[in-house]
């Protein structure tokens, strides 16, 4: 998480429900949500390996989670 923030990554998407641990005190999750836009729970099962441009369009409702429309464009 520190490395991603250090190199100025702005967006992180992954095919798991959350990067947050079950424990209440999760420094990694807090660091990520403070510095990046997270797209959690993506369905990437049928996406072939390769390089893509990721376009994520979250609803701007100022909360911890919201639906989003995401698009992958093959580079």
Automatic annotation (TrEMBL):
<dbReference type="InterPro" id="IPR037175">
    <property type="entry name" value="KFase_sf"/>
</dbReference>
<dbReference type="GO" id="GO:0004061">
    <property type="term" value="F:arylformamidase activity"/>
</dbReference>
<protein>
    <recommendedName>
        <fullName>Cyclase family protein</fullName>
    </recommendedName>
</protein>
<dbReference type="GO" id="GO:0019441">
    <property type="term" value="P:L-tryptophan catabolic process to kynurenine"/>
</dbReference>
<dbReference type="InterPro" id="IPR007325">
    <property type="entry name" value="KFase/CYL"/>
</dbReference>
